[in-house]
Amino acid sequence: MQDLIQQLLTDSPFYQGAAILLVAIVMALLAPLPREYQAFSWFSHLAKSLSAKVARSDRDAGQQRLAGSLSILLLVVPFWLILSFLLELAAFPWFFECVFLYLCLCDEQFHKVAEETALALSRQDKQQARQLLSHWVYRDTRELSEVGLCKAVIEKLLTTSIYGTVATILFFAIGGAPLVLGARMIKQLEYTWPALNPEYREFGRPAYLLSSLIYWLPTQAWNFTLAIQGGPGALMQLLRPPKSPQPVNNYLPTCALTAKVLNTELGGPQKFAGQKVALMRIGTGPKPTLHTISAALKLARLSKGIWILSLLLLPCLWAILRLLAHA
């Protein structure tokens, strides 16, 4: 018995890490911060203020990319170092780890926004739906039709967990809270300076490329979670992802899988500051409706549930294996 207790004490950081992750995810889903009070919303405002001064379209492409790269260093490195040192110096680092993970997961509340948007559309209140969505996407929503609003909601809903639940679990297991925090800051810069937007096409490319590299593993893991729910056709599409004519569209495979599982059409042109950007349409099904949003919500909940259930089962299985080995 003494040996068993010693083994469990040796594994205590593993169980503590799983508990921290679980608490942070549950809090982010059930008790999220309002959008205007989220730390990454403030970070976006800071990034926009900086880009307004240094992102100049009259410079050549190389200069704009250099300005974008230096802006990433200026915004990410100081804050990341300060917060990482805070974790090292804290008397109770587990508390701050939980807080950092909670802040990194705040976008997981988008499922509530999706429900509110669907409710507004059911009342034929497209203006309210556009207003709700405008705080969450960095494209123009003022002229979106009902179909366009449905597409935007579904695409956001089924891609949020890549940098939310999935990335948080994987990165926390690999490098702890500092890795989760640093990666999330890069992702926020990618969203703030979307490379699809003509204004940030070159300036935002470094953030896009860095984010695509960092989130490659979470993207593949999430895509697999979607594909296993779509049958053989979705699994085959996972192995043969579509090619985008746009070199800055890293969510195309995820949207293509979502369209396959939901049997709907996604994608299509988007507008940024009044400028139309031609993007390919994805899927061969009918255009999305309110019923499609409901199906997307179920798909997102089930997919996140798989990851949360795995987070619960792994420590239990590990403890059982320890008991069996001791017996």
Task: Compose a concise summary of this entry.
Helix content is 71%, strand content 3%.
List descriptors.
327 residues; two-stranded antiparallel sheet; 71% helix; cobalamin biosynthesis; transmembrane helix; membrane
Explain the overall architecture.
By secondary structure, this protein is mainly alpha-helical. Helix content is 71%, strand content 3%. The protein contains 14 helices and four strands. It has helices at residues 2-10, 12-30, 39-54, 61-89, 93-104, 110-122, 126-134, 146-157, 160-192, 205-214, 216-227, 231-239, 252-262, 290-326, and strands at residues 266-267, 270-272, 275-277, 281-282. The strands form two sheets. Strands 1-4 form a two-stranded antiparallel ribbon. A two-stranded antiparallel ribbon has the order 2-3. β2 (270-272) and β3 (275-277) form a beta hairpin. α9 (160-192) crosses α11 (216-227). It is globular. The model has no long low-confidence stretch (mean pLDDT 88).
